[in-house]
Amino acid sequence: MKKALGKVIVAFLVCLLSFAVVFPRHAIAAEEYCFLEQEPECVRQLPFSGDLLYVDIPPSGVNFIEVTLTDYSTEYEAVFNSNIGNPIVIPPYHSSEVISYPVQPASSVTFANASNALDTPVQIKVFGYSG
C-alpha cells in the first residue's frame, strides 16, 4: 500500500513538472522607466503581458505627453492600460496608435501591457511637450 501511494505521489509530481516545462510562465512583470526630464522622448519595449512602464513627468516644461503604442505581434491584439486613460486595443501586424494626454507637472504615469496572450511584444514611445 505504501509503495502504491509513493508511486502515485511521484507520478503526480512528474505531471506537475512536465506541465511547468511545457507551459512556462513569465514569472515576474518587468518594470521599465522613462524620466522625461533627462530623456524627452523615450522608447521602451514591453515584451510580455504584465510588463509595466513608469513615466516620470518633470516639475516644469511638460504639460502633455504624446504616446505611440505599437503591437509587434503577428497573431494577437495588444491591450494597453494606463492610469490616465481608458484601455487601448491595437490589432496585430505592427499596428500603431498615437494618443495625446494632458499631464500634471511633477507627477507620474503608468502604462501596462495588459494583453490577453502572454507573449505579445509591444512598444511604447512617450514624448513630453508643453502646450
Describe this structure in words.
With 131 residues, the chain is of the alpha+beta class. It has 1 helix and 9 strands, in the order H-E-E-E-E-E-E-E-E-E. The strands form 2 sheets. The protein has a 5-stranded mixed sheet with strand order 1-3-8-5-6, with no helix packed on it. The protein has a 4-stranded antiparallel sheet with strand order 2-9-4-7, with no helix packed on it. Strand 5 and strand 6 form a beta hairpin. The radius of gyration is 21 Å and the shape is globular. About 9% of the residues have low confidence.
Per DSSP E runs of 2 or more residues, the count of β-strands stands at 9
Secondary-structure-based class equals alpha+beta
Please estimate the helix content. 10-25%
Element string (H = helix, E = strand)? HEEEEEEEEE
Q: Report mean pLDDT, rounded to a whole number.
A: 85
Characteristic terms for this protein:
131 residues; alpha+beta; five-stranded mixed β-sheet; four-stranded antiparallel β-sheet
